[in-house]
Amino acid sequence: MDKKLALITGGTKGIGAGISKMLLHHGYDIIVTYCNDVANADAFVAQARLDFPSCEITAIRIDNSDYSQVAKLVQYISEKKAIHCIVCNAGVTLRKSLTEISNDDWLRVMNANVNNNLFLIRDLYPFIPIDSRIVFIGSMMAVRPHGTSLAYGVSKSAVHALALNLVKVFEGTGTTVNVIAPGFVETDWQKSKPEEIRQNIYRKTAIKRFATVEEIADAVKFCVYNPFVNGSVIEVSGGYDFK
């Protein structure tokens, strides 16, 4: 029996890397995308090939906000004939106030986080077998808006809605579509925040810490391996209440 193939966008660092490693651990061949950090992507692939020698690992550099690059990814996957798991993790954020956001700013965030995820699923639709898995990485900022990330929060709200609507598209196929909505996660970007800001976030979180990357990956695993979980937005926030 052929091995299953998974795509993880933004899959070489942070949450994406944790998801990639989880799927490799469970025997998937993977395709990961990355945007700018070539050295990190090379290091991730080299280490993954050492840790998972029986798995095929391919890294493709694309900007998720540029559909022409996403189309090249689709072409590559189409040559594989089937894609059994898609994790839409790549995205961009924007910390500007309403009056500071330019048209180009807004469109870049929407293209990267929403539009090209839709186009990716649309274009890959003929290559998604029955009983496949689609998981979007959303955000708690789509659930409880945050004043400093307007464009990001709106885009992630759209991601949540996109996933729930795609459930109807795949109805009857056994393919499930779900969303993981993380709160604050212990990625390199979060580690760079001043300690005062980190402590303020801890005070707002019932668990009094950030999530680990592995805890988010474990939530994705739940969606991948429980075939009755479908159309769910699963919050993994540690009880963050934005107070």
Rg from Cα:
17 Å
The helix tally amounts to: 8
Number of strands: 7
Low-confidence blocks of residues: none
Strand % is: 5-15%
Main beta sheet, described? 7 strands, parallel
Structural class designation: alpha/beta
Helix content range of the residues, please? 40-55%
What is the element string, with H for helices and E for strands? Answer: EHEHEHEHEHEHHHE
The overall average pLDDT, rounded, is 92
CA-CA gap between termini:
51 Å
Order the strands across the largest sheet as they lie in space. 3-2-1-4-5-6-7
How would you describe the shape? globular
Overall description:
This protein is an alpha/beta fold. It contains eight helices and seven strands. The protein has helices at residues 14-25, 38-51, 67-78, 103-124, 150-169, 188-191, 195-203, 213-225, and strands at 5-8, 29-34, 57-61, 85-88, 133-137, 176-182, 233-236. The protein has a seven-stranded parallel β-sheet with strand order 3-2-1-4-5-6-7, sandwiched between helices. Helix 1 packs across helix 8 (213-225), helix 3 (67-78) packs parallel to helix 4 and helix 4 runs parallel beside helix 5. The protein is globular, with a radius of gyration of 17 Å. The relative contact order is 0.14. The mean pLDDT is 92.
Question: Helices and strands in order, then pairings?
Answer:
Elements: E1 5-8, H1 14-25, E2 29-34, H2 38-51, E3 57-61, H3 67-78, E4 85-88, H4 103-124, E5 133-137, H5 150-169, E6 176-182, H6 188-191, H7 195-203, H8 213-225, E7 233-236
Parallel strand pairs: 1-2, 1-4, 2-3, 4-5, 5-6, 6-7
Helix pairs in contact: 1-8, 3-4, 4-5
